[in-house]
Amino acid sequence: MKVQVRGRNVEVTNALKEYVEKRLGKLEKYLDLIEEAQVTLTVEKDSHRVEVTIPINGIILRGEESTGDMYASIDLVVEKLEKQIERYKGKLFRRLGRQNLEVKAGDNNKKEEEEGPRVVRTKRFAMKPMSVDEAVMQMNLLGHSFFVFSNADTEKVNVVYRRRDGNYGLIEPEF
User: Fold this and answer.
1) β-pair partners for 161
2) In the chain, N or C: fewer CB atoms in 10 Å?
């Protein structure tokens, strides 16, 4: 597995990089298809945050943890990813032949606006047609509360979201 480790406000030492590679290597016992992983280590005040993104044939595993210790954050994010893989292992194997879904984080807008809310992050991704059930699974794998996707049945852009009662909602366009 190729692991790309980046640091924000922290120097990525060889020991830290080797620890990340060793811990993420544990995930290969669950899935042999893991080819690469992007890891971002961030330090802000007393918070040490680790973000891991692993693309696997059209599905993206993502985990994020923040503690007071970088090594503890790494351990917790690996545990979170292991639980995601175990929970969705059957569904993942049924979908492995599908095309890749690319997620690209856009550049943050550096220009200061005078007042009011502003867009601070833009994400772009290729949308592959999928069923509502697959969109719900992808949303849960990413750990998000909503997911935008192209509905394979209607060929229109839809949104699934997690409701407060634990169920899911679907937003469809009406023309």
Assistant:
1) 146, 169
2) C
